[in-house]
Design goal:
The protein has about 230 residues and is mostly helical. It contains eleven helices and no strands. Helices cover about 75% and strands about 0% of the residues. Its main location: membrane.
Length: about 230
Amino acid sequence: MRNEARYAFHKTSPVMLGFLFLGASYGIYMHKLGFNFLYPLLMAATIFAGSVEFIIGNLLVQSFQPLTVLVLTALVNSRHIFYGITMLKKYSNTGKLKPILIFGMCDESFSLNATLKIPDNLDHSYVYFYVTAFNYFSWVVGAGLGGLLGGMINLNLAGLDFIMTALFIVLFTEQLKNARTQRDALIGLVFAIICLLFCSKNVFLLVTLVTLVVLFSLNYLIMRRKDDIN
């Protein structure tokens, strides 16, 4: 397991660094709202959905609206449904680790686990587990430290979230370079731009994912039918 942990740490370290800073900014944000460090620490550990945690932090200082929280959480995290579909095969034989992998799946863990070319001598299940665990704990630790040190830190954190955007650009570029065909990735990129132009920023990702699932499913059925005819 030590080799799997070492390999996963090497691959995950850029994400972990970003998570520490972003988690700290979340902890500082919660401190500014008037919460002690236990709130961001426990919310990060139990919710583990970065953008949702920021939203809920703001909602906690307003009148309690559980239905609003439920709807917002479902909309913001609806993309995880498609992540799960993509990872069905990779996670199918992970045994006792599967619940942890499901709970800990976030954008960054999905991107890494979906694209890693793991050496044959390593246990793939444990590599996925360590990637997920390292990301999880870096976010939780960052949130706790930010909440704990929030009163001592007076920094302008505007634009810090671009760390994750830059990381996704790198991951997308790397995946595009290694893909057997770039057609599907380019189709996804084009549809994402189109949906962003015609849909609200709050829903364009969901619309894009649904559209692509329908499109690729139809393409798969058509190709399968052609193969059956031939």
